[in-house]
Amino acid sequence: MNTLKNQFTLRFPLLKWVVVVALFLGISLPGFACRLLLIVQTQPDAADVQERFITSSRSLRNQAQTEAPWFQLAGQSVKNNFYGSSDQNHDGFGVVAFGKNPADTVYRRNVQWVQSPESTKQLTETIEATAKTTHTYLGHIRAASPNTSVVEANNHPYKVVRNENETWYFMANGGITIPQKAYQQKLKQHPWLSTYASKDPHPSDSEQLFHWLLTDVDKTLGKNYILDETTTNNPLVEESLRHSFAKLLAQQKLVTYQPSLVETAEVLVNEASNQALVRAIGKTWMMSNGTYTYLAVYNNDVWMQVKKAESGAIEAVVVASEPTNLNEFYKAGQQFKAGWSRWQQLPNNTLFTIARHAFYDGEDEKGESVTNYNISIDANSFDAPAIKVPKGLCPKAKLNEADGC
Q1: Fewer Cβ close by (within 10 Å): the C or N end of the chain?
Q2: DSSP letters spanning 240-292
Q3: Cα dist. 393→245, 260, 270, 273, 291 in Å?
């Protein structure tokens, strides 16, 4: 008994001080959240895609296993308490690889842990089959929210065919409350979207956010308008998405959790009630049809790395919930010499548009057909409400949508 007591006393105060020091230094602790990876290229790069999805130490696949020092200090039992197993993102994966034509796009989802033999084989085969032909990827590994079913239908990216010439995919992490009455009303106004709505009693908030945003885009463009390289209506779509997302954010409420369940560095403690107060939401979402990709960052840590040609033109963009190659994150290496920038953290309350455009179709010196592409990145802040701590904070933990401070 004394031995167990000593182990407990030594281990957990040490963990406490590690967390306190991390907070003081501004270090982001590992979050219990989904992991995202977006790759946009002017020309396919098989080696880079393979590395970022599968082979590097912090590839998307390898981010499913938690190996952070503070978890090791806490011990295996703490990891099991949070996850039920030692892995961080154990609720499946999804990937979409956009082809030159819609028929060439490859879409895969699996509810099995991404590091299981079945899932690893499926992900590897998908990347190997598409890395030489695909210019845009969305990749996601899931850590399911509480009370959300772990089924394939809830795995990201989600897919919606807006019309026969345009298909959209969507993935996200973090949490947000979707007003159910308003959401159902939107589905009634856009019956074509109802066929994609989950019938699960505990649907994913990310899927509902996707539908919420897409109905506003559809209303802005009109059902038959195609958002492609020839469009002039992208500013209208950007404005629609910014307004729609900001409207949802304005309805969010501050939520309190028991200290034992807090897993974020952004914690304020109400000493009177010993409750920990955390941000109500932290949400990142990506929505793409292969030509245009929209990325919104709100109260979240998201990273970007860009590759430029000698002319200064952007040749590739990688966006991830954490850097996919930590060696390059800490020091310059071969990738920087190849034109890659250092990782930069994206600003919050910002909507990014990443567009892959064709400048012209022509012929090279051999008379073969060539299409020249360029990637552009446009960033605009959206009117997101500031989350304020109410006077006195919340006296009790409030976890239901109807509750508030």
Answers
A1: N
A2: HHHHHHHHHHTT---EEE-GGG---S-EEEETTTTEEEE-S--EEEEEE-SSE
A3: 26, 18, 7, 9, 45
